[in-house]
Amino acid sequence: MNYTVRKEILKAKLIDTGCTKAELEELYFLISKYGSSEEFNRIALEIWKSNREKYLDNSESEILLKDIKKRIK
């Protein structure tokens, strides 16, 4: 399996159900070697959007998202 296919499989799994620590490390490696910081940011935002309603109200989620964006930069 090539790295592009594997990266997409891991991204989908991370967003849908979550990854193991080993899978997350593999995804991070693939993105750092074959991807970009923009791709990493897109994944983080997708995960954030898919999970925030489960745990936080809108005002809390917006505050945390701003904090995360600051830390990434």
Find the count of extended strands (DSSP E, 2+ residues).
0
Structural classification: mainly alpha
The percent of residues in helical segments reads over 70%
- Supply the number of helical segments: 4
Catalogue the unreliable spans.
none
Tell the overall outline.
globular
Rounded radius of gyration (Å) = 13 Å
Biggest sheet layout: none
Head-to-tail CA distance between termini: 33 Å
Question: Would you give an account of this structure?
Answer:
The chain has 73 residues and is an all-alpha fold. It has four helices and no strands. The chain has helices at residues 3-16, 21-34, 37-55, 58-72. Helix 1 (3-16) crosses helix 2 (21-34) and helix 1 runs parallel beside helix 3. It starts with a helix and ends with a helix.
Furnish the topology, listing elements before pairings.
Blueprint: H1 3-16, H2 21-34, H3 37-55, H4 58-72
What labels describe this entry?
4 helices, 73 residues
Short description:
The chain is an all-alpha fold and 73 residues long.
